[in-house]
Write a structure and sequence with these properties.
Residues 219-319 form the Fe2OG dioxygenase domain. The chain is α+β, with helices and mostly antiparallel strands. The protein has helices at 6-13, 18-28, 31-37, 51-54, 79-95, 108-123, 126-130, 180-204, 211-214, 284-289, 347-356; strands spanning 69-71, 98-102, 141-144, 159-166, 221-228, 238-243, 249-254, 260-264, 267-270, 278-282, 299-302, 309-316. It is globular and about 55 Å long.
């Protein structure tokens, strides 16, 4: 059996009908997990990425840089500690666009059960998963592999269960039976944490604590329950290509496997798993309304041959129903010397533009909304 180098594999991807193979993969409704279960030993060509995109994907990140860790303990009872945390959140949001939080109030048992729920869904029989398979992202629950499968050159090595959890609450019977109850419990707790985080972010911008909440930044919640199967040739593909998030804020639960990297000072830095911690990152919409004070940073997930890796990305934005509310730079943050950098947009317009142009090359959709 042939094993290709990166350049050879990429060359071979140019000599076949890529769209036909993507369509066959999509119509199987079995996802990447289905390929692994079938016993493949080589990465199918639709997943082979360009060598430039894979550069340093498997290299260790610079040990001099570590994503900031923010301890949320005592921020309600101790005003001086809260001020310190606000300063830490401000610094991380302006420079990294990423930080991890500990003592966030969600029990470790809930986090572990949520990850187990993700594994139970993706590791169950293909027929059970197919009942939820859809590329209609106006629905509240959809299982798929690669939301942008037909837009990117190379597919990513992951499968996703997409669930809209708020503002319209789902009933347990609308969710997969193997994970529905824990998804409802986890979402409720993440929404509470989101309120706290948006208060801290508001204060970090010099605004009143309820400012971002009153703007309905914390109103909607979407869960992306991701499953990254063990990859036979991780040097040829990515779990998730470089991108920014299209929401206001993302809270990420990742397991012990790791693989998430953030681009910081033009270097890919590992976001190493910290037991019990949650990762928080600024989304494009928060960069827009903060008028570039906060940074929505590029990040990616490398493939691995240790897996599987499970994660839950909690996106704070209102996906459905569409809201007519316009979002632009917050007026308290603009002045004659610092005018608005972006035009107003609705969440749906921004997310639709983001999705339509999600090529996996790190190009920010924010550029299209600049004044």
């Amino acid at each position: 059996m042939e094993v290709f180098s990166r350049d050879e594999a990429h060359e071979k991807t140019q000599k076949y009908d890529r769209m036909r193979e993507k369509k066959a993969f999509d119509e199987s409704m079995a996802g990447v997990k289905g390929l692994v279960d079938a016993g493949i030993t080589e990465v199918p060509r639709i997943f082979v990425d360009h060598p430039e995109n894979l550069q340093s994907a498997l290299a260790s990140s610079n040990g001099h840089f570590h994503v900031p860790i923010v301890d949320l303990a005592d921020i309600v009872k101790d005003p001086s500690r809260r001020k310190e945390v606000v300063n830490e959140v401000r610094s991380a949001s302006k420079t990294w666009g990423f930080f991890q939080v500990v003592n966030h109030g969600i029990p470790t048992t809930v986090l572990e059960e949520m990850l187990d729920g993700v594994r139970r869904f993706h590791e169950q029989g293909a027929e059970e998963k197919r009942r939820f398979y859809s590329r209609d992202f106006t629905t509240s629950v959809a299982y798929h592999s690669n939301f942008n499968l037909y837009k990117t050159e190379a597919a990513n090595w992951r499968d996703t269960l997409f669930c809209v959890m708020a503002p319209n609450a789902l009933e347990a019977e609308e969710l997969p039976a193997v994970c529905g109850d824990i998804m409802l419990e986890f979402s409720k707790r993440v929404m509470n944490l989101g309120t706290t985080l948006f208060e801290l972010l508001s204060e970090a911008l010099g605004l009143k604590p309820n400012h971002l909440k009153d703007m309905e930044c914390a109103k909607g919640l979407v869960l992306l329950n991701q499953y990254y199967s063990k990859c036979p040739q991780p040097e040829l593909t990515l779990g998730t290509s470089r991108h920014t998030d299209s929401d206001f804020l993302t809270v990420l639960l990742q397991d012990h496997v790791g693989g998430l990297q953030v681009l910081y000072q033009n270097q890919w830095i590992d976001v190493s798993p910290v037991p019990g911690a949650l990762i928080v990152n600024i989304g494009d919409l928060l960069q827009l309304i903060s008028n570039d004070i906060f940074k929505s940073s590029e990040h990616r997930v490398v493939a691995n041959n240790m897996g599987p890796r499970a994660s839950v990305a909690c996106f704070f934005y209102t996906a459905t129903p569409p809201s007519p509310k316009l979002y632009g730079p917050i007026k308290e943050l603009i002045s004659e010397g610092d005018p608005p950098k972006y035009r107003e947009t609705t969440i749906m317009e921004y997310v639709s533009h983001f999705s339509a142009n999600a090529k996996g090359d790190g190009t920010s959709a924010l550029q299209q909304f600049k004044l």
